[in-house]
UniProtKB/TrEMBL annotation:
<dbReference type="InterPro" id="IPR029024">
    <property type="entry name" value="TerB-like"/>
</dbReference>
<protein>
    <submittedName>
        <fullName>TerB family tellurite resistance protein</fullName>
    </submittedName>
</protein>
Length: 143
């Protein structure tokens, strides 16, 4: 296996892990609403998840581990996707918020301030900010 193939394989696994985390959030309330399905479809395309991988992840989202990104910006990008998934059906249920907090800790955010981070993230997504604004605001929320 070449170095490029190894990198592609690792990248693909991280994308599957990220997608499965978002599927877990979508399934937390037991139903995937049409808005959530549309979001998942778009995200799967962006993450280069094949149709067969998509179906496999939907049937068993716990199969793939959450692989925290190395950089803080990449963690914020994943948090953005997760927060948008929770917010997409326009009502935050307790299970979804709890799962979002757990996944955020698994992504590498500090447990002691995860509530503050999630509140800020949900506030920004509620304002329909784009990814760049989200990352900037999250990086500067304590200033």
């Amino acid at each position: 296996m070449s170095f490029a193939e190894l990198f592609d394989s690792e990248f693909k696994q991280r994308n599957k892990g990220h997608f499965s985390a978002i599927v877990r959030v979508a399934l937390a309330d037991g139903v995937v609403y049409p808005e959530e399905k549309n979001f998942l479809d778009k995200l799967a395309s962006r993450l280069e998840i094949t149709e067969s991988e998509y179906e496999e992840i939907l049937s068993d989202p716990l199969k793939y581990p959450i692989n925290p990104p190395y950089s803080y910006v990449q963690r914020l990008e994943r948090l953005y996707d997760l927060t948008r998934m929770v917010h997409v059906d326009h009502h935050l249920e307790d299970k979804q918020e709890v799962l979002l907090k757990k996944i955020s800790v698994a992504l590498g955010f500090t447990p002691s301030n995860v509530d503050y981070i999630i509140a800020k993230a949900l506030s920004l997504v509620d304002k329909k900010v784009d990814l760049d604004t989200f990352v900037y605001e999250m990086q500067h929320m304590n200033k």
